[in-house]
Amino acid sequence: MNKLTKTIIGFVLLTLLFVFSCQKKNNKVEDTMLQGKATVYVDETILPIIEDEQAVFEAEYKAKLHLVSKSENEIINDLFNDTARIVILTRTLSSKELKVFQSKKISPKTRPFAIDAITFIRKKATNDTLIALQDIVDFVKGKAVPNIKGLVFDNANSSTARYISEISGVQVNNQKNIFSFKNNEDVLKYVAKNNGMIGVVGINWIFQPPLDLQETLDNINVLGVKGLNKSEYFFPTQDNIAQGKYPLARRLYIVNCQGYSGLGMGFSSFLTGERGQRIILKSGLVPERIPTRKIRIKNTITKDKN
């Protein structure tokens, strides 16, 4: 074998090695169940609790989650466009939506992990802290309702707007004296400054507001709600939500469309596991399953040393 032949063979081997390395790099999965990076799209109405879960998850594992906060409709569109693969929603995917994924040979994995609620809020200067859901429905349908000048939603495409639209049978974003902003924070600030306006927000923003919103919340009342065809009013407390008494409760879901054992599966297991459920319970929301409590029994009593 002459020198030229050896050179050619060496060049070919190096080329093959380079191509193989590039293919391996391109096919490399960026995340596993407990490490790597992933983007999670979150319904804006429940962002605070997911930020809490993210902080603990990242502290325990070599994982980095990038949270993208959007309205419900925007997240669904991102799922269809393959922009989003891991999403947090306040509902399951409809049969029509599932068919879209089936046509792409994708099987979304959906798991419930908590129960939260939609709340009505009013400026604290008004003494009335109760509201009937029927009054909200009537107002959406264009009827005059005493003490309600307008309804304020976070976003025309949000889960809260969709929820009230379903209850009333009318699309809220097409009605008079119904307003929408960009997010729940804007709703809180607007209602705190304007009499007669009823804000519609996710309860998580009341239980866990950013520090800079505390003064705003001090000027807001969370209203007790009487359900349709009901006689009693209930406030959105953790107990009332857990017992099914509060009429505007809803489940939270993580939907994973990654198609492999990545951070979508890992974060889903964390949310529904012991640690994730304790974070839910502490936040004021209702966990999908109540975390167990370990009771330690001592046979002897020891006195504290002074």
Automatic annotation (TrEMBL):
Record keywords, A-Z:
Signal
Q: Which residues form the signal peptide?
A: none
What Pfam family is a match for this entry? PBP_like_2
Superkingdom? Bacteria
Q: Where is the PBP domain?
A: 36-274
The record's section on InterPro entries has: PBP_domain, Phosphate_ABC_transporter
Q: What is this protein called?
A: PstS family phosphate ABC transporter substrate-binding protein
Organism for this UniProt entry: Flavobacterium paronense
| Taxonomic lineage | Bacteria, Pseudomonadati, Bacteroidota, Flavobacteriia, Flavobacteriales
